[in-house]
Amino acid sequence: MAKTLIVGNWKQNKTIDEAYAWLSALSIQTSEEKEVILCPSFIHLFPLQERIRALGLKVVLGSQNFPSFPKGSYTGEEPVEALREVISYSIIGHSERRKYANETDNDVVKKVSLALQNDITPILCLSSIEQLNSYLSLERKIAESSEKIVFVYEPPGAISGGGEFRPENPEEVNRKALDILESIGKNVTILYGGSINPDNAKSFFSMPNISGGLVGQSSLDPISFSQICNTA
Ligand code: PGA
Predict the structure, then answer these.
(1) Secondary structure of the chain: what % helix, strand, coil (to 5)?
(2) I need a surface site. Which of 24, 77, 123, 225 has the fewest CB within 10 A?
(3) CA–CA separation, 112 vs 90, rounded Å?
């Protein structure tokens, strides 16, 4: 059975004190079959790594974005060598980065490739099957290393954006996940993202082609996030 992955995407939220308080309030039941991944902003990664260790929590860290260059004179970019010390995963190609930071298909596949080279698992967001096909045509590593990538089907219209929940229908999500599996032609890990909350998490996690979720708004509250993790 594939591991269930629950990814918390805090987006551009939380002070460091709020982040510490969140960790203290987290109450998750962990198991070998489940991994809880927290993606705070870059500035929180190292202090949170220390706090997670001190509290003995079973939470691994991921970033919300990945650099395009390994190191060098690229002002404002994060050094991959330092990131490697703290993250195991990185969300790549989130639709909000495509919308607000003008990320292109080429940028996304470059980041996926660099993450793979550095043994960081890309959590590759897909708005549609057409987008996946574009990535597959641009970078052959995406197909070749697909077992080392976590794919997320996340239609932009289902993202709460911090407002009202507007999730996709779970059956439809399951069908889209099957399309992704067929395009890749291998048994890869697929998550769903978009308005997951404690009330609907089970309906997604029980779908046969879905191995967990990418959670935005509901990851900001430690109680809601714990409930979602404990549903999986
Ligand atoms: P949401 O966000 O859970 O608030 O819809 C998900 C995401 O954008 O990753």
Answers:
(1) 45, 15, 40
(2) 24
(3) 9
- Computed on alpha carbons and rounded to an integer, the radius of gyration of the chain in Å comes to 16
**DSSP letters for 49-98:** HHHHHHHT---EEEESS--SSSSSS-TTPPPHHHHTTT-SEEEES-HHHH
Q: Does 214 sit in the ligand 1 pocket, CB within 6 Å?
A: yes
pLDDT band, very low/low/confident/very high, at 162 (cuts 50, 70, 90): confident
CA of 58 to the centre of ligand 1 (A): 22
Query: Position of tokens 């790549």?
Result: 92
- Between CA 1 and CA 80, with CA 91 as vertex, the angle to 5 degrees is 115
Query: If you measure from the C-alpha of residue 132 to the centroid of ligand 1, how many angstroms do you get, rounded to a whole number?
Result: 19
Quote the pLDDT of residue 211.
97
Report d(CA 70, CA 153) in Å as an integer. 27
Is residue 8 within 6 Å of ligand 1 at its C-beta?
no
Q: 94 alpha carbon to ligand 1 midpoint, in Å?
A: 10
User: What is the C-alpha to C-alpha distance for residues 46 and 121, in angstroms, rounded to an integer?
Assistant: 18
| pLDDT averaged over every residue in the chain | 96
23/215 Cα distance (integer angstroms): 16
Supply the residue whose CA is at minimum distance from atom 2 of ligand 1. Answer: 216
